[in-house]
Hints:
This protein is mostly beta strands.
Amino acid sequence: MTRLLPLLLALPLLLTASLASAQTSTERRYELRPDPSWPLSIELTAGDYQIVASESDSIAVVYDAPVPEKLKKVHVQMSSGHGRNYLKINGQKSGFHVTIQVPRKTDLIIRLGAGGLRVGDIEGNKDIEILTGSLNFDALHLQDYEKGDLSAHMGNVIGPDFHPSSGASTSRSFETYGKGKYHLHAHVGIGDVALHSTSSF
């Protein structure tokens, strides 16, 4: 027992060191295991955000800043309950990049004040609104949606499927109907919505 005691006392220090080594001085990571049957509601302040599919069942937030002091101004809230999974990120005004990893099948409700948002290959309903900035769908399977509406109040909706003969065309709004089971709503107040679809109706 006396031989094991020093090892037991050292164990918490080893665990702490392993957790710290997973993060660089200018990077932070948070994780939450959500209820898969509930939608994910995301509130974002100004910044550059990317949402990508994860092979795990967890929601992970990874962000960085130019200098470590900037990380102190970032606040991340994650919770799960009352019929929804919730994520809120309040970050700095400049030089702020965040990658949000979500399960590949996730219903998304996103509100962004200002900045850029890229949405990867995520299956599910999408309700996304941005006051000022840009919204890019990197891999949108249009056949998965029963109804889709995309609009920009002061900007354009850009997509390769509008007028194939002329390439990527622009419009202020775009509505489409299909045989899928999901709904898609995307709106930008000032800025553009861009679709990079993998299939068309």
